[in-house]
Specification:
By secondary structure, this protein is an alpha+beta fold. The chain folds into two domains: 5-200, Jelly Rolls; 206-312, Homeodomain-like (Arc Repressor Mutant, subunit A). 45% of the residues lie in helices and 22% in strands. The protein has helices at 17-28, 69-74, 139-145, 155-169, 176-201, 207-221, 230-237, 241-249, 255-271, 278-284, 290-301, 305-312; strands at residues 5-8, 33-35, 43-50, 53-60, 63-67, 79-87, 90-94, 97-101, 106-110, 115-119, 123-131, 149-150. The strands form two sheets. A seven-stranded antiparallel beta sheet has the order 1-3-4-11-6-9-12, sandwiched between helices. A five-stranded antiparallel beta sheet has the order 2-5-10-7-8. Strand 7 and strand 8 form a beta hairpin. Helix 4 (155-169) runs antiparallel to helix 5, helix 7 (230-237) packs across helix 8 (241-249) and helix 9 (255-271) packs across helix 10 (278-284). The longest helix has 26 residues, at 176-201. Keywords: DNA-binding, Transcription, Transcription regulation. It comes from Amycolatopsis acididurans. Pfam families: AraC_binding_2, HTH_18.
Length: 316
């Protein structure tokens, strides 16, 4: 378990503050450049980790942050970031879209596409970074929601903004293990609401997108079945397996890969909770072969299921 870390420019001289800030935010998130008009820049970032999610709060004087193509080319990370404005304002620019965030507003953006964050006033922002696949948004669906402001007062914002605020407050104290279920639940709700937005906004003739959503829903409902495979999904939707594979190719993944990723994500959640054996967790989500489960989990998360469970439950 990664413990709470606090980094502040007060720990270095004024001349070193901006260079130090670039280093801190690049280590906390992804490689970033930062510029500020004033020489005496001050900022602080508090960072914690909840499973696969990095939770942080950034308090800083006016500055700009950029993620460039060159930085992305050196190392892609496969993460989304969600910025929730707590105080002051922010301008997010990605893919030609501009989102002006006020307190309570938030926006989702992709760390593997160039973006800029401009803070013209002293600001506070809660930032949540997590793997892209966690939201179950395909490439087409993501284009509808990335870089767009979600206002605190609209339906999605009024539901999610208080929950993300609650997660951010855990940086001020609390038991990270007890927050894990909330973090997972918030991301599930975010995924569902964003998918609903895309579906509502899509023209009626976009049958391809509708089929993909139905396929993903069927997968999630049947993950516990060891026999779940592309053929079974295709049969449930009354389409050919070849056509189903073609639909998922547009999403940037194969059907089998999607099933595997969803199973592993559910296993990851259960392993973070005490009282479940590794073999029982794997079997509960359609992976009854313990050796295969261990190999697949390690390939995805860089450690065995047992190592992950021990770390999350504080037995490292």
């Amino acid at each position: 378990m990664v413990h709470l870390a606090v980094h502040t420019t007060r720990s270095v001289s004024e001349a070193e503050s901006l260079d130090y800030w670039r280093h801190v935010i690049s280590e906390a998130f992804v490689p970033l450049d930062a510029t500020a008009e004033r020489d005496r820049f001050q900022g602080q970032v508090c960072i914690d980790q909840l499973g696969a999610m990095v939770v942080s709060r950034v308090d800083a004087q006016p500055h700009r942050v950029r993620r460039t193509k060159a930085m992305i080319a050196r190392r892609e990370r496969g993460y989304y970031k969600l910025g929730l404005q707590l105080r002051g304002g922010c301008l997010l620019v990605q893919d030609g879209r501009e989102a002006i965030l006020r307190p309570g507003d938030f926006a989702l953006y992709d760390t593997d596409r160039p973006y800029t964050l401009a803070f013209e006033d002293t600001t506070s922002m809660a930032v949540f970074m997590f793997p892209r696949e966690r939201l179950r948004l395909g490439a087409t669906s993501a284009q509808h929601v990335l870089g767009r402001r979600i206002e605190a007062e609209d339906e999605t914002g009024s539901l999610l903004s208080p929950l993300f605020r609650r997660l951010a407050r855990r940086l001020e104290g609390g038991n990270p293990a007890s927050t894990m279920p909330l973090a997972d639940a918030v991301l599930d709700l975010l995924s569902a609401l964003l998918t609903e937005q895309v579906t509502d906004a899509a023209p009626a003739d976009q049958s391809h997108a509708a089929l993909v959503l139905r396929a993903k829903a069927f997968v999630d409902e049947n993950l516990a079945d060891p026999g779940l495979c592309p053929d079974v999904v295709a049969a449930a939707l009354h389409i050919s397996t070849r056509y189903l594979q073609k639909l998922f190719a547009g999403e940037g993944t194969g059907v089998a890969g999607w099933i595997r990723a969803r199973r592993l994500e559910q296993c990851r959640r259960d392993l973070a909770r005490p009282g479940r054996t590794v073999s029982a967790v794997g079997a509960a989500w359609g992976l009854p072969d313990a050796a295969h489960f261990s190999r697949t989990f390690k390939a995805a998360y860089g450690m065995s299921p047992r190592e992950y469970a021990n770390r999350q439950q504080g037995f490292a």
